[in-house]
Amino acid sequence: MIVAAMVAFFAAGSNKVETAAGIEQTRPVTISGTSLPELGSGTDNAIGQLVPEVTGASFDGTPVAIGHDGRPKLVLFVAHWCPHCQAEVPRIVSHVNQTALPAGLDMIAVSTSVDPAKPNYPPSTWLSNEDWKWPVLADDDKSDTALAYGLSGFPYFVATDASGKVVGRTSGEISMDEFDAMVQKTMTVSPG
Amino acid sequence: MTTEQVTLFFAQLAIVAEFTVLVFALLVIGGLFSPAIARARTLAVQTIAPAALGLAFAVACVSMAGSLYFSEVAHFVPCKLCWYQRIAMYPLVPVLGIAAIRRDTNVRIYGIALAGIGALISSYHVLLERFPSLESGVCDPNNPCTLIWVERFDYLTIPTMALSGFAAIVVLLLVAGRHESSRVSAPRGKESTWQSTRQPRNGATPVTTHAAGSSTSEREQSGSGVASSRS
Q1: For residue A12, what pLDDT band results from cuts at 50, 70 and 90?
Q2: Subunit contact B75:A117, Cβ cutoff 8 A
Q3: CB pairs under 8 A between A and B
C-alpha cells in the first residue's frame, strides 16, 4: 500500500485553478468617509452612522459603487473559504428568487479576504456557480472595504437606508426571517 | 513537487493507518466470538508487537512531518484546534523514539494518554468541519477551525489524517510488548489468552500478567525476580 501511495504521489498532477481572461479576484478600491467601528456583541454604535463610500469594480472590471446615492442598500460581505458563507449564499439566492427584493433596494455582495491558498477559490467561480445575479464588489487584496465597514466575522451584513446611514449590522449566518427583517430596516428612514 | 502531490501522499499513508486500526478492531471484536479469529489476532499481535514501538514512533514522525509541511511549506495556517493536536502529537516523537530504542513498554500508558487526548480533539475538529454550526454560525475572519484546507477522497482532511495517526499510535501501543511472554493457543470458549509483560521500574525481571484465563500453573517466574499473576 505504501508503494501504491508512492506511485500515486509521483503520478499526481497539479490542480491549479484557471480563471477566464480579464477576471480578477481582487480589485483596487477607493474608500472615503469615516470607517464604521468593528461590530461587537453589545449595542451597535454604528447605527445611524454614514457608511464609507466605496468605488471599485466587479471581478470582470464592471464598476461597482457603494455610496450615498439615495437608494437603500443591503451589503453582504462574503469570503470564498468560509463554510458559513457557502451555506448562506445559496439560501439567500433561493429566498430572494422566491420572494423578490423591495423595489429600489440594492443588494450588493463584497467578496473579500481572498486567498488563493484557501478552499473554494476563486470567489468569482463560486458566486457564479451559486447564481448570484446581483452586483459584486471585489475587495482589494488588503480587504480594505471589509475593514472600513467594521467586519468582525463572516458572513457579514450591513443594511443602510436611503440616506446611507447604517440601520442594521449582523455577523454570522442568519435565518431568512432575520434576512427579511434586515431588508425591512433598509426601507425605513433614519431620523436626522 | 506540488502541495496536491504531497497531500495525496500523506492522505494515502493515513488510509494505511486507518486500515491497520480497522483490521485490529475487527480482530479484537471477532476474536470475542470466533476461536479462529482469536488465533489470528494472537498471531497478528505476536508478529507486530516486537516492532510496535518503532512503528508508533514512525507514525508520530510522519504525522509531525505532515503538520510541519502543511504549515511551513504549504502555508496553511494552523487553527486553535490544530495547535491542540500538535501539543498531543509532537511530544510523542521523542517519547516514543526513546522508548523504542530502550524497548521500554512502560511508555504505553503515557503514549496512549497523549494519543487518546489527541484523537478526541481531532474527532471534534472533524465534526466541526462537517457541521460548522456546532461551534457558532460565524467564520473568524482570521483563522477559523471550520476551514477545510485540503480534502482527499472526499473525506480526508488534515484533522482526519491526524485522527488516523493518533488512532494508529493507540493501537500500536496497545500491541507493543505483548509478544514477549504471549503464546499462541486456541481460546477456551470466549476466554482471552492475551498476556503482556510489564517491565518493572527498576529494570529488573519482567512481571508477567495474564489478562484472563490464567491459572496458577501458568504463572511464570524468571531469574531471581518475583513473578505475580493477575486475572
Answers
A1: very low
A2: yes
A3: 85
